[in-house]
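Standup notes, structure subgroup. Blocker cleared on the zinc ion input:
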Amino acid sequence: MSMYAQVKERYAALGVDTEKAIAALQGIPISIHCWQGDDVGGFDRASDDLTGGIQATGNYPGKARTPVELMADFDKALSLIPGKHRINLHACYAIFEGDKADRDALTPAHFARWVDYARERGLGIDFNPTYFSHPAVKDNLTLSSPDEETRAFWVRHGIACRRIAASIAEALGKPVVHNIWIPDGFKDVPADRLGPRLRLQKSLDEILAEKFENVIDCVESKVFGIGLESFTVGSSEFYLTYAAGRKDVYVLLDNGHYHPTEFVSEKISSLLTGFDKIPLHVTRPVRWDSDHVVLLEDELKEIANEIVRNDALARVLIGLDFFDASINRVAAWVVGVRNMQKALLGALLCPWDKLRHMQDAGNFTALMVEMEMYKTLPFGVVWEEFCARNNVPDDGSWLKTVLAYERDVLLKRV
Ligand code: RNT
Ligand code: ZN
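Run returned:
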C-alpha cells in the first residue's frame, strides 16, 4: 500500500475524506501579487524610490526590470505552484509602448499585455490603484489631501483604475478585485483627524460613484506606516464604517495592518456576519508590517481554519502581499503560495462539525485534546499527493529548478 493510501485510511477512520480535501484545494485560487517580483518597483518609473511608508529590504540580485522579465519570472514560479491562480497587478505596472501616461490618465490599453498574458494561461487578474511612489503625493497625503489639486489628481487616478478593472473583468469574463490602499498619514500628532477622514470619504464617494458589474471594490486599512507613525487616515474603523454604510464595498484585511496582539483570524467571523465577501492580503509581519514571506505559522493556519470551517471558501478572496528583496524572489513567491495552500489543506483535513459539536456540548477538555491531535497527523503526505497530481515537485525538490533559473537567467541581469 502506498504511503498516501495508508494516510487516507488513517484520516478516514477519523471521519475525514482526503480525496474531498484534495478536490477542494484544487478549486481555491490564490491571488498572487506581481510586486514580489521587483520589490514593488513597477514600470511607470514615476519615482525611483518606494514611498508610502512601506519598504522592501534586501539587495538580492536578479530582480525583474521589464514586463518581459517579470512575466518570465512569474511563469517560473507558477510552474512550481500547484493549481490555477490569479495575478494581482498594481497600476504602476502599466506597460507603455511609446505612449507614456501619468497615473491619472491610465487606460485599459496600458494593461492589454497583462490581459493577454493572463488569458493565455487561464489566470484571473486583480487590480490595485497605486497611490504611492509618485511626485503627486503631497506631504504624504493623496485622497485626503487638503490641497484640492492633489486630491483631484488622485481621484482621477482612482476613477481611471476602476475603469481599467472593469475592462479587464470584461476581457477575461471573470470578476476583478479592485483594492484601494492609500498611505495617507502623519509622522507626528495631528491637530485635526476628522478633516482628513472626511476628505477621504468624499474622495471615495467620487471614485466609487460609477457602477460596474464584476468589479469587487474594497478598501484596505492600516495602523501605521514607516515615517507615518502617529496617524493613519484610512484606519480600520474608518473603512469598516465606510463599507458597512454602502453594501457595494468590502473591507480588505491585511494581517500586517493591526496592533501586534490583534489577529485577522479573529476578525474573519465577525465580518462574515455582515459582508458576503472578505478579501484578504495574507502576509507575515515581523515586529512591524514588514511583509516577510508567508510561512506555515500558527496565524496562517488559523486564518485558513476560519475560512474552511465557516464554509467561506467562496466568500473569502485570498490574496498575498509580501515583498522580500533579500532572497531569490521567485523562490519567495513559491514558498509563500505553497504555504497558503498547505494551511488550507490542513484546515480541510479537520472534522470541524465534530469539533463544533464538542464545543457546543461544553466538552472543552476533549475538544482541546482532539484539536491538538490533528496538529501532528501526517498531512504532509496528502500535500505531496496533491503536488504529484498537479505535476509539480514536492517541497524537497523544487528549489533546484529555481537555482538553475537563477544561474541561467537571473544572474545574467546586470
Ligand atoms: C501596504 C499595503 C498594500 C501594499 C501593496 C503594494 O501596507 O499592504 O497592500 O503592500 O498594495
Ligand atoms: Zn496589503
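Discussed briefly. The longest helix spans residues 148-172.
Next: hand off to the docking folks.
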